[in-house]
Design a protein that fits this description.
The protein is an alpha/beta fold. The protein is 48% helix and 12% strand. A hairpin with a 4-residue loop joins strand 1 and strand 2. The structure holds iron/sulfur cluster and zinc ion.
Length: 307
């Protein structure tokens, strides 16, 4: 297989795009495409301050690397969740993020959930009703709250996450199976800011998992290979496998599933839901983020802040 740009030996072949590229041209193509998506979906501009949520995995570190190479003002945020499970998952992922930032002279914010709030995520899950066997709903709540807090406290214009096409297609598949209008309405490459909430953007949403793994590998980015131990056996992994089977038979099916959804949304397919989802929210009296409760948001209530 030959590189379409230079005719040299291809390092990576993308069946869905009918495109094979050598290492050098692949490492140019991914950032150029990312820039195109950032502009197309109006995610952010070169004058804005971007906070990249990094987990130590290939997607978020690649995203930070790409934004840095494209000359964006992008700082990192790592949330130390205290997930150990015998493999030191959080410690190792933190080390990789810190090393990544220091090698490139970039700023990394670290929020240590145990140090700042006195609990690890697994502890919190055990002590609330939320985490019967897995701490994921508590973890999601803490991540959303803390990313948003740091973005607002430090004056970032936008919060960027490393969600790739496989992640987005799996979420879309789940939402579609339930025809969950509220979630479908909120899903997309960019979510505008709302009172108390920072704008969110997913610049990698059109690249599949394989493409990001190849980018990280070919760029020599050191990342944590293990998934979070609690991700094993999750519904989203099952959906990803189903979609990969489909993709194997019909290359491009995953991308077209996602892009057709965006197209349908643009045509107003879910528009009548808009009022319902934004109406009726209050402001948390402790942290100022939106909540459906009258006094404290779920995060502040769980952490026992201000009570
Ligand atoms: Fe948090 Fe791990 Fe669950 Fe992801 S899989 S939500 S990181 S506990
Ligand atoms: Zn709150």
């Amino acid at each position: 297989m030959k590189c379409r740009k230079c005719g040299g030996k291809a390092a990576f072949n993308m069946r869905q795009h009918k495109l094979a590229l050598c290492k050098e041209h692949y490492l140019e193509w991914i950032p150029a495409q990312t820039e195109r998506f950032i502009e197309k979906y109006r995610m952010f501009t070169h004058d804005e301050k971007i906070l990249v949520a990094v987990s130590g995995g290939k997607d978020s570190l690649s995203l930070w690397d790409i934004l840095w190479k494209l000359g964006y003002h992008a700082d990192g945020l790592y949330l130390a969740l205290g997930i150990d499970e015998g493999i030191g998952y959080s410690d190792e992922s933190r080390r990789l993020c810190e090393e990544f930032a220091s090698k490139r002279g970039l700023t990394l914010h670290v929020v240590d959930v145990l140090g700042d709030y006195g609990h690890t995520i697994p502890d919190l899950a055990r002590s609330t009703h939320r985490g019967k066997d897995k701490p994921c709903s508590v973890c999601g709540l803490v991540k959303r709250h803390e990313m948003n807090r740091i973005a607002r406290d430090f004056g970032y214009d936008v919060l960027a996450t490393g969600h790739n096409l496989d992640d987005e297609a799996a979420v879309l598949f789940g939402n579609t199976l339930r025809w969950d209008g509220e979630y479908l309405l909120r899903q997309g490459p960019v979510l505008p800011a709302a009172p108390g909430l920072a704008r969110k953007a997913k610049p990698l949403c059109r690249f599949c998992e394989r493409e990001m793994a190849a980018y990280a590998l070919l760029s020599g980015i050191e990342y944590i290979y293990d998934e979070c131990p609690f991700a094993v056996g999750s519904t989203s992994i099952y959906y990803k496998e189903l979609l990969n089977d489909l993709e194997h038979e019909r290359p491009g099916a995953k991308l077209s599933f996602y892009l057709s959804f965006l197209e349908a949304k643009k045509k107003g397919l879910f528009a009548e839901q808009r009022e319902e989802t934004t109406a009726g929210l209050n402001v948390c009296q402790q942290c100022g983020q939106p909540t459906s409760a009258l006094d404290l948001c779920s995060f502040c209530r769980m952490m026992g802040v201000g009570v």
